[in-house]
Amino acid sequence: MAKTPVSFTLNGSPRAAFADPGQNLLEFLRRDVGDLSPKFGCGQGTCGACTVTVDGETHLACLVLAQTVEGRDVGTASGLARGAQLDPLQEAFMDHFAAQCGYCTAGMLISARALLDRNPRPTRDEVVEAISGNLCRCTGYEPIIAAILSVAEGRARA
Amino acid sequence: MTIVETYPTLAEAARAMGRDAAYMAGGTLLMRDVNEGAGPARLIRVSDPGLTRVQTTGDGVRLGAGVTMAGVLASRELEVLHPVARLIGGPQVRNMGTVAGNLFAAHPYGDFAAALLALGALVVLAGQGSARPVEDVLKARDSAGLVEAIEVPRPRDPRAFAFHKVSRVKPKGVSVLSIAVHLPREGGRIRDPRVVFGAMGPTPLRSSGAERALEGHALDTATIDRAAAAACEGLAPFTDQIATEWYRREVAGVHLRRLLTRMEQG
């Protein structure tokens, strides 16, 4: 079956690859584009491990048709660091032990970054709401909430 | 294998529909099947940006079929629906899931459709002149056609509308049930009440019992008691992973009583 060429921007860089018919964005990014930061958890839009941004809005990559990102701007966790300089959220996740197994972390970081970009001083409730579409089975969420709040309050390292 | 066809207009998409095809909007429900290899042979999409438009009209708001829950939350004109949209899925799903898609969401989803039914919204279908009540579309989902827009009348008193969603997990959890109530009043008496339950049947359904108990009465304790007692009349709950039919029947009236009491107390 014919593949569809897809040209898009990934973390600010132009990329192009061929998508299979009906292929989801998560598999496309991981297998055909080579960005392994979004994770496959459920393939049902329930866990949030595959969270990416499309034109700045958080989407579940497993529920997005790969070919629909043609011409659009996709953001993943691998675009958060600038060279060796980690995003303050990544630093804060380390400082607060907000990653245990790490499987949810990439999605958590994308949801948290989207929140802070829109609302630099969120309340605790707003943080809880912002990560409500991301499941974590290790931490009980508290270290993640603390990490995000620490960046929001400007208390993070760097 | 699922192939994807994208059309510039809804009219062209409507012509391309067939038994082997499904219309895809936000994809939050359909892509699950596609990922499992159980998707339709063809997915039909429309690229027309006009479908995501929110327009204020004389007596309400016209929502393009492709307006997302986030789009509803971004519109000040739709404030009455904000408490509903905020409880659909998580943030990512709200950025993707659409108002028209919610009309076709199978149990236990469709809380937004419940609210649209309670507000007496009308559905504009592609190629059909007059808009049809939400009820009609919910009753004939498979044959309804493609939705172009949803017309939401502005309630004269926004406080006459209330919504409550019961879920085990918060803030993001699937409905045990949801309730959308619209109680227009004339001279203190309720006229044409609408009491809609989500996740209490194959589609959102009106509680004929509660509506009859409320019609023509003032919203007082005795009326609320009667409405709560008759809550399950007209509903058709069933057992799923979230709750049993028995449990849903037991608690429907309890939650309705709480919601109506909250409305009574303003």
UniProtKB/TrEMBL annotation, chain A:
Domain 2Fe-2S ferredoxin-type per the UniProt entry, residue ranges: 4-80
Keyword Acyltransferase: no
Keywords: 2Fe-2S, Iron, Iron-sulfur, Metal-binding, Oxidoreductase
InterPro entries per the UniProt record, alphabetical: 2Fe-2S-bd, 2Fe-2S-bd_dom_sf, 2Fe-2S_ferredoxin-like_sf, 2Fe-2S_ferredoxin-type, 2Fe2S_fd_BS, Beta-grasp_dom_sf, Diverse_Oxidoreductases
One example GO MF annotation: 2 iron, 2 sulfur cluster binding
Keyword Iron-sulfur: yes
Identification of the protein by name: Ferredoxin
TrEMBL record, chain B:
Annotated keywords: FAD, Flavoprotein, Oxidoreductase
UniProt xrefs under Pfam families: CO_deh_flav_C, FAD_binding_5
Alphabetized InterPro entries for the sequence: CO_DH_flav_C, CO_DH_flav_C_dom_sf, Diverse_Substr_Oxidored, FAD-bd_PCMH, FAD-bd_PCMH-like_sf, FAD-bd_PCMH_sub2, Mopterin_DH_FAD-bd
Keyword field contains Transmembrane helix: no
Protein origin, superkingdom: Bacteria
GO molecular function, one term: oxidoreductase activity
Stretch forming the signal peptide: none
FAD-binding PCMH-type domain ranges (all copies): 1-157
PANTHER family linked: XANTHINE DEHYDROGENASE SUBUNIT C-RELATED
The name this protein goes by in its record: Oxidoreductase
Origin organism lineage: Bacteria, Pseudomonadati, Pseudomonadota, Alphaproteobacteria, Rhodobacterales
